[in-house]
Design goal:
This protein folds into 2 domains: 30 residues; 230 residues, Phosphatidylinositol (PI) phosphodiesterase (TIM Barrel), CATH 3.20.20. It is built from 12 helices and 9 strands. The radius of gyration is 23 Å and the shape is globular. The longest helix has 27 residues. By secondary structure, the protein is α/β, with parallel strands linked by helices. The termini are far apart.
Length: 264
């Protein structure tokens, strides 16, 4: 009888332990990241864009996506900069494509940060975050091969949205990364309508001037997502949510995430 009671006590204790562990897992499970907010060049409204400080702050706020714009050095290395010229970030008036890696590595921002290689970003953050990466150059086909090689090297295909203004830059990536979401940036109704005809494009990245009910519905009716660049104003973010846009780029990550939590 005593042995039977002891076994029952062990069973009850085990069940209580399992219940406790399950409760703790649920209580401390992190909230899923917001899929709607893309940190435009990091938290660029507060730190110098495309620097570790900007990315770190955006991630500290809880963003899911940090954005990179890609340019190439004279040697073909992929660096992160919105502009093809180094002057806005460093004061040096020279295009990256005419500079060697050593020259670019010597550049510094006003707060003494260096110009990041895409590989620097991948090394630091890996698969702990997600990326929205733009093939930035006018002749951005040259960036495709090194981009693909780095994505494969760090096994990050599932963590990336790839974007471009030039749809011809996106098409070759279909064969290498068929499941990687592809976003085309459009500034006019004509460009938007043309993008809708391309089967390999998953997301229409529209200038905020194109953010209206008709365009959002048209994009959704064609089985694609509607993204917007760039929303920073409170009212504009709320209007985008009301229009049921799928995502948007913002320079103010904390503000956007707060609005998302309280309004969507």
């Amino acid at each position: 009888m005593y042995k039977k009671k002891r076994n029952i006590f062990k069973l009850i204790s085990l069940l209580l332990f399992i219940l406790l562990v399950g409760t703790l897992i649920i209580a401390f499970k992190p909230d899923p990241k917001n899929d709607h907010v893309i940190s435009h060049r990091g938290a660029s409204g507060e730190e110098i864009e495309h620097t570790f400080k900007a990315y770190d702050l955006a991630l500290e706020y809880g963003t899911k996506y940090i954005e990179q714009d890609l340019v190439r050095s004279k040697e073909g290395t992929l660096y992160v900069s919105h502009e093809e010229n180094a002057e806005p970030l460093t004061g040096v008036n020279k295009d990256y494509k005419y500079m060697t890696d050593d020259e670019i590595n010597e550049l510094r921002t006003d707060d003494n940060q260096h110009i990041l290689k895409l590989e620097d970003v991948f090394k630091k953050y890996g698969d702990d975050t997600h990326y929205a990466i733009e093939l930035k150059e006018q002749d951005n086909k040259g960036a495709i091969k090194p981009f693909e090689e780095l994505v494969k090297k760090y096994d990050l295909a599932d963590n990336i949205i790839v974007q471009a203004r030039n749809k011809e830059a996106l098409e070759p990536i279909v064969s290498t990364f068929p499941d990687m979401p592809k976003l085309i940036l459009v500034n006019t109704e004509e460009e938007l309508n043309d993008a809708l005809k391309q089967d390999y494009i998953d997301i229409i990245g529209a200038n905020s001037d194109l953010m209206n009910k008709s365009n959002v519905e048209k994009v959704h009716d064609n089985g694609k997502e509607f993204s917007v660049f760039t929303l920073d104003d409170n009212d504009e973010i709320k209007r985008g949510i009301d229009l049921n846009i799928d995502s948007y780029f913002t320079n103010f990550t904390a503000k956007a995430l707060t609005i998302e939590d309280n309004y969507r």
